[in-house]
Amino acid sequence: MTAEEQKRFNKGQWRFILCSMVAYAFFYVTRKNLSMAQPYMLEEGAISTYALGTIMTVHGVLYGVSRFVNGFWADRLNGRIFMSVGLVLSALMNLLFGCSTVTLMFAAFWILNGWTQGMGFPPCAKMLTHWIHPRELATKMSVWNTSHSFGAFGALGLCSLIFAWGLGWRWCFYIPAALAGLAAVFCFFCVKDSPTEDGLPELELDAAAVAKPSSQITTADRRRLVFGNRVIWLVAMANFFVYIVRFGFLDWGPTFLKQYKGIPVAKGGLMIIGFELAAVVGTIFAGWVTDKVFKGRGVRTCVFCMLFAALFAFGFWYLPDGAPAWAAPLLLMGAGFCIYGPQALVGIVAANQATKEAAAMANGFTGIMGYASTIVSGIGIAFIKEHFGWGVTLCAIAGFAIIGMMLFLCAWSARADGYGDRRG
What is the DSSP string of 76-115? Predict the structure, then answer.
């Protein structure tokens, strides 16, 4: 590229990153709103703990399957349109869930929401690799990945306001549905699938990375890039445990803070917002460390993140009732700072290892492994809590973090990316 083209490309790249962040955040607004509504649903008897845990599990598993299946399609279709359709459908499922009155209807619409939610990340994973060079992917995709936290922050903050205004829990679904519909329109007009769609030149890669032209990449090649890569298998298995820890805090946070520590839902929601804000900083820091310290080897950063996430979970379990008021929020923020690094880096490692030709498929595979974890983080946590209490549950979450750390450790020697394998 010429200097002028590079300047235009850089502006277009950041415009794409920011616009896609905004659009993707609304997938989270229409998914994480349930964690704030569930204590009130339980209090009103609208649903039971086991039914809620089962719905969360099936929702998560179907979401993982959706990410996997939609990963195949997203590598081939226009990401902007694909993502916009997913947002419209997620808005519809939220609206119908809010109108529901019986468990069967709650289950049907929230489980279907799991499928439509899976139409969000795969096209983003593909588009990001077309806009960002592999040597910058960890840093810039980590910035992009804060959209997860901003979306969850938005859901928690919006629902806290809804309760402060005296509105019922159903408005936690009506209002996000309306906002997601507007976000779908924004996505359709403002997010660009690739630099060429924005009138810019294609991203320039190293010679080794383009040894085989994109037009010659077949489905069999994509499958080999993903399923023939040992590193992708290891990070996918580790992702199972990353998501148990993440969802253990995020989905059950307001409930266990109220039941285990006697903290009101409104205050607990603010503490989980602190968890998400710390996650923003932790995600960006993890990306910076990966590129600047470990030279793109994201699994090395993940090892340390999982270790410290386990320590913070143990610290929260050990926290005595008479501890200072700042101790519990600080421990939760520490856990958020640590666990979102691996959550972001798994996608980055998968995209770099599979190359831009199979990035969506690779992220679909790691996604299905991550969301299969809801078997544990949903009904599994409900079972542990009901039979052993929240103390044992927190210890179990810390143990899962250690298992994830060991799996990342097995991939410690992996190269930064798989582009060097695409010769001939």
Answer: TS-HHHHHHHHHHHHHHHHHHHHH--SHHHHHHHHHHHHH
Neighbours of 35 (CB within 10 A): 24
Name the amino acid, one letter, at 282: G
Class of domain 12-194+221-421: mainly alpha
Across all residues in the chain, what is the average pLDDT? 86
Q: Where are the alpha helices (DSSP H) in 293-412?
A: 298-318, 327-354, 359-371, 374, 381-388, 390-410
Query: Which residue type sits at 7?
Result: K
Kindly provide the b/e burial profile for residues 293-307, where b requires at least 16 CB atoms within 10 angstroms of the residue's own CB.
ebebbbbbbbbbbbb
The gap from C-alpha 174 to its chain's centroid, in whole angstroms, comes to: 23
**Distance between CA atoms of 256 and 39, rounded to whole angstroms?**
10
| pLDDT value of position 207 | 47
| Euclidean distance between CA atoms 149 and 152, whole angstroms | 5
Task: State how far the alpha carbon of 332 is from the alpha carbons of 53, 62, 231, 282, in Å.
Answer: 22, 28, 30, 13
pLDDT tens for each residue of 158-186: 998 999 899 999 999 999 999 999 999 99
Q: How many angstroms separate the CA atoms of 9 and 191, rounded?
A: 15
CB atoms within 10 A of CB 386: 12
Q: Residues 364-387: pLDDT tens digits?
A: 888 888 878 877 877 788 788 788
Total-model pTM: 0.76
Which residues, given as ranges, of the chain have pLDDT below 70? 1, 205-217, 254, 261, 263, 265-266, 268-269, 420-424
Whether the CB-CB separation of 393 and 256 falls below 8 Å is answered with: yes
Q: Give 5's Cβ-side CA count (13 Å radius).
A: 10
Q: What distance lies between CA 70 and its chain's CA centroid?
A: 16
Q: In this structure, what token pair is assigned to residue 32?
A: 């994480």
Q: Scan for tokens 């947002």, then name that residue.
A: 87
